[in-house]
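To the wet lab folks,

You asked to see what we're planning to order before we commit. Fair enough. Below is the target structure as tokens, and below that is the sequence we designed to fit it. If anything looks off to you, flag it before the synthesis order goes out.
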């Protein structure tokens, strides 16, 4: 099992988030690779697009089919790491690859932030209570 870097929080079924000032870097977590699944391609949002928390914002093509990934936050897409996207590295260590940078909405601290950090805590707690040979 990969170690989750200290500045990354599991923020949804398939995502991690790293908060930096009023922005969030979002990537995929290791759960998307369960069962030996490999990623072939990723369809990312475009710069300037508004994304809504809990709406689909990334589509991932894997060896087991297409996976729709929910946005963990609401905000404005500032940057997309598509041209330099290293799919091979993503398949080895998804925590090393940030995919999207989002400028967070003003209500992040009061509404989204509490929920995102609560989800992160619950996900980490769940991981820590699993048996060592259980998969995510």
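Sequence we intend to order:
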């Amino acid at each position: 099992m990969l170690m989750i870097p200290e500045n990354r929080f599991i923020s949804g079924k398939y995502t991690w988030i790293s908060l930096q000032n009023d922005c969030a870097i979002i990537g995929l977590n290791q759960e998307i690779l369960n069962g030996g699944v490999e990623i072939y391609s990723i369809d990312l949002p475009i710069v300037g697009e508004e994304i809504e928390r809990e709406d689909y914002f990334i589509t991932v093509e894997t060896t087991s089919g297409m996976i729709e990934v929910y946005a963990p936050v609401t905000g404005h897409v500032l940057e997309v790491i598509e041209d330099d996207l290293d799919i091979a590295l993503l398949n080895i260590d998804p925590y090393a690859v940030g995919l999207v940078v989002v400028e967070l909405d003003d209500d992040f601290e009061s509404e989204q932030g509490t929920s995102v950090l609560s989800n992160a805590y619950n996900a980490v707690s769940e991981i820590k209570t699993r048996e060592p040979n259980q998969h995510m």
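Structural context that might help your review: Residues 108-129 form the longest helix (22 residues). The chain has one domain: 9-117.

Thanks,
Computational group
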